[in-house]
Amino acid sequence: MIRATVVLLLAAGPACAQQPATVNATLTAIDGIRVGHHTLAERPTGCTVILVDGRAVAGVAQRGSAPGTRDTDLLLPVNAADRIDAVTLSGGSAFGLDAANGVMRFLDERQSWLTRLTSGMDVPTVSSAVLIDLWVGGKPSIRPDAECGYRAAAAASRAPVAEGSVGAGAGATVGKLTGLDRAMKGGIGSAALALPSGLRVAAIVVVNALGDVVDPSTGAVVAGARNDAGGLADARRLLRAGAALQRTRVAENTTLGVVATNALLTKAEANRVALMADDGIARAVTPAHTSADGDTVFAIATGQWRGAADSSVIGALAADLVAEAIVRAVRQATSVAAVPAARDLK
Predict the structure, then answer these.
(1) Which residues contact 52 (CB under 8 A, 6 or more apart)?
(2) CATH of the domain at 184
(3) Is residue 216 part of a domain?
(4) Euclidean distance between CA atoms 96 and 3, whole angstroms
(5) What is the pLDDT of residues 103-146, one digit of tens each?
(6) What is the reported pTM?
């Protein structure tokens, strides 16, 4: 994957040299989107909060067999809620759903008195999804709570998103087909692009998959199940060979994503974008959408760009970015609690 960079020529004097500046190629490249992480120090786990300035249209796709979520049914086209304030992604299994309460408290404290006087008490809409990382680090009683969500929301900014073993990706792992003891470090990654027309699309993904992570541009395994020598076993070869596998329990794995665009979409179109964006998981994770994964993808449309929006085009771009973010998540990850990362492979 190629990350775009630009070079700025600063005319501040004859001694001034060329200074490279990295383009923000993460979710916060979408105007009106802020992202914050909070990572717990006591055990590798944490939460990540995506805040939307002024609310936004949203949709969701859930292809995992046992997702752990909150307020996702609200996003379906047949239901009443048409906008959300935030999305919370968290470790800690179902316990981590409590992080959304902290995000709600953060948002409630910052409602203006004008809003309260004109529309009454405005209850924030915070959709959320969790992953299971309780086995990582040996202290399963330590998991993200409302305070974690509050701190992540308070830390949210428009700066390029930190990636790797932070926030909801702190305890994420991948490649568990040959057992937890041969898993590798997952993480959180992000990617974005801007078209000449002004359309922008971006993604952020937390990768805690049962399967391996494969770079779609090369077909090479980046991180996944390890063999006896500590190298990559390649889940595709194991499956084709009929090898004996040690699957984890149902719902102990998941890939969680949020895609965003500055386009103006309806709620039904946002749901279509989320569904198409989910294809990026299948491109970069093998096997994907298993009975042991709880995959969930949210889509957010801020509507700040008023060009002609084609939800099929946006969905196709979002799928590419989800795949790119997945690869970045494991490449940026660092080893924790004796779980090696891709960067540790020789």
Answers:
(1) 32, 33, 84, 85, 86, 300, 302
(2) 3.60.70.12
(3) yes
(4) 32
(5) 999 999 887 544 554 555 578 899 999 999 999 998 999 999 99
(6) 0.90
